[in-house]
Amino acid sequence: MASQMASFNPKNVKSIGVYASGGDAPGMNAGIRAVVRTAIQRNLRVVGIIQGYTGFLKKEFVEMELRSVANIIQRGGSILKAGRCMEFLKPEFRQTAVDSLRSAGIDALVCIGGDGSFTGAQALWQEHQIPIVGIPGTIDNDIYGTELTIGFDTAVNTALDAIDRIRDTAASHDRLFIIEVMGRDSGFIAVAAGVAGGAEDIFIPEHPFDMESTVEVIKRGIGRGKMSSIFVAAEGPKPGRSYELANMIHKKCGLEAKVCILGHIQRGGAPTATDRLLASRMGSAAVEQILKGQCNIMVGIKGEDLTYVDLSECLKKKKHVNQGLIDLAKILSN
C-alpha cells in the first residue's frame, strides 16, 4: 500500500460521480455496476458522467439507480460511453469542469481508465481538492501498480481465439502468418497471447526485434519438417507495421508471410469471468476507500489482494513486460 495517500473528510461526501475515460475496455460496465450498487448500499447518491471528461464540460450527468446498472455485467464497452478530451489538458477547462461538478452536487469521483485518464484525475485533486479514486481500465495492462487491468484478460483471449483459428489455416496451407494485436507502446497483449498461442516469435515495442534471429527460427522449423509458423506482433506506433515485418522476412529468406491485423475487435465483446470479477472488486473497493477518506489513489491488484497506490506513483513509474515470458516463448518455439 502507498505510504502517503491523500486524505479528506469523508463526512462531506453525499454524492459520487463515476465515469469511464480513454479507450473502452471489456469489464468497464462491471466496474460501473459495482460503484453504483456499493455507493447506493452505503446511502450515497450516484451520478454517471457521460463520455468521460467531455461530459464534465458539457454537463452530461445522469442520476444512477440500482436498475440503471441491471443486466450490464456481461456487456462490453461502457454504458457511460468513453473517450478522450484534449481540452481537459488546459487548466481553464478543468476549472469549468469543477464548477459543473459542484453545481451538480458531486462531492467525489471514481475514474475508470488508463494513464491519460489518471493524469486528469490527479489534476482534479491537486488543483481543486476533488476527492477521486482510480480504477485501471485498459486492455493494454500497462499501468504501474497493478498486475492486471480491467479488459486485459478479455483482449488476450480474443487474440488467442484468432491465433488458434489462423493456425488451422496456416497448417493446412503450409503458411507463415503474422498476427498483429493492439499495443502502441505496450507488448503485454502480444506476449501473453503469443506464449498461450504457441507463437514461434513475438515482436513488441519495448524490444528491438532481431530479424536474423527470426529467420533462424523459421529455418530451424523447416529443417525439422515444420512448414507453418505463427508470429505475434504488437502494432507499435503505427497499426499495420506487420506488413513491414512481412516484407523483411521475404527479403531475408524468400518466404511470403500473410498478415492478419486484429485491430479493435480486441476491445469489444463480453468480458471474461476474470475481468468481471476484477472490475467488481475494484469498483466496490473504490467507493469504500472514499468512505474511509482516502483519495488520489488507484485500486490495483497483486496476487489475490487488492492494493492502493498513489496516482502520482502510477504515472511516474513504468510497468515492464515480464522478461521471463519472453524467454519462455523463445524456449518453447524451438
Sequence-ordered SSE layout with sheet pairings:
Layout: E1 6-7, E2 15-20, H1 28-41, E3 45-49, H2 53-58, E4 61-64, H3 91-103, E5 108-113, H4 115-128, E6 132-136, H5 152-173, E7 176-181, H6 188-196, E8 201-203, H7 211-223, E9 229-234, H8 242-253, E10 257-261, H9 273-291, E11 294-295, E12 297-302, E13 305-310, H10 311-316, H11 323-333
Helix pairs in contact: 1-9, 5-6, 6-11, 7-8
What's the short story on this structure?
By secondary structure, the chain is α/β, with parallel strands linked by helices. The chain has two domains: 192 residues, 3-Layer(aba) Sandwich (Rossmann fold); 115 residues, Phosphofructokinase domain (Rossmann fold), CATH 3.40.50. The chain contains eleven helices and 13 strands.
Tags for this model:
2 domains; four-stranded parallel sheet; alpha/beta; Rossmann fold; 334 residues; 11 helices; single chain
3D structure, described in words:
There is one protein chain. Helix 5 packs across helix 6 (188-196) and helix 7 packs across helix 8. This protein has a seven-stranded mixed β-sheet with strand order 4-3-2-5-6-12-13, sandwiched between helices. With 334 residues, it is an alpha/beta fold. It folds into two domains: 6-151 and 271-316, Rossmann fold (3-Layer(aba) Sandwich), CATH 3.40.50.450; 153-267, Rossmann fold (3-Layer(aba) Sandwich), CATH 3.40.50.460. The chain has helices at residues 28-41, 53-58, 91-103, 115-128, 152-173, 188-196, 211-223, 242-253, 273-291, 311-316, 323-333; strands at 6-7, 15-20, 45-49, 61-64, 108-113, 132-136, 176-181, 201-203, 229-234, 257-261, 294-295, 297-302, 305-310.
